[in-house]
Q: What sequence folds into this?
């Protein structure tokens, strides 16, 4: 059973360019979460979807960041006009929400974004 | 808003030493508390979940409890091994937040042989 798959694992982009990160949740999981991880801020919640619907995007920067979940098998996080401060590891996680394992978030290995 | 404070940024121990990591939390609701572990190059993975105050959760030799009175929860292991070297995060989910977790800053554990 594959875990959460994130691509690309590493991305280097020039300042001002766009970056798109992909996430494939575990099959059958109804919730998808995006987190950002940096040394300074640690793990920061960005946004999450339940049954593909956006539920809470309170952690998303108001400008340049957007997330979508067009179908149950993938979600994307897009950063427009990337800035050096966007450099981070972006983690995707999925969850069942119900049952004995419903509380558990299963994280992917992350996408490391470097903006130069 | 909800917050989790994890003060110990780095802990260095020798094999067979006792580990104790503490977190405090703040919420207006009824939290479920977690410990996640992150090994180098991987995403965080669930280590323990503690749902009820003063009850213990245990996994892989680790134990976790939380004290509702002091709004604190901790992770301990009697005898750490080198393979336990990782970053440990405490996390909180408020009732009704559909698994949205608030994480502490993380404690990097280095265990020397």
A:
């Amino acid at each position: 059973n594959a875990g959460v798959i994130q691509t690309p694992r590493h991305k280097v982009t020039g300042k001002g360019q766009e970056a798109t990160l992909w996430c494939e949740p575990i099959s059958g999981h109804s919730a998808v979460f995006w987190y950002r991880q940096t040394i300074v801020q640690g793990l920061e919640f960005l946004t999450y979807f339940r049954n593909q619907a956006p539920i809470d995007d309170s952690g998303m920067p108001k400008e340049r960041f957007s997330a979508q979940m067009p179908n149950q098998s993938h979600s994307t996080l897009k950063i427009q006009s990337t800035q050096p401060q966007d450099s981070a590891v972006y983690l995707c996680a999925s969850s069942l929400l119900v049952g004995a394992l419903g509380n558990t978030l299963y994280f992917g290995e992350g996408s490391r974004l470097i903006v130069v | 808003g909800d917050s989790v404070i994890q003060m110990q940024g780095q802990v260095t121990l020798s094999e067979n030493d006792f580990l104790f990591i503490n977190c405090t939390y703040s919420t207006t609701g009824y939290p479920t508390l977690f410990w996640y572990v992150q090994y180098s190059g991987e995403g965080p993975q669930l280590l323990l979940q503690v749902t009820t105050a003063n009850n213990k959760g245990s996994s892989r030799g680790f134990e976790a409890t939380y004290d509702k009175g002091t709004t604190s929860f901790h992770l301990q292991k009697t005898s750490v091994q080198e393979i336990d070297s990782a970053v440990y995060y405490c996390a909180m989910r408020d009732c009704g937040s559909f698994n949205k977790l608030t994480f502490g800053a993380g404690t990097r554990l280095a265990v020397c042989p």
Summary: Chain B touches chain A through 22 residues (CB under 8 Å).
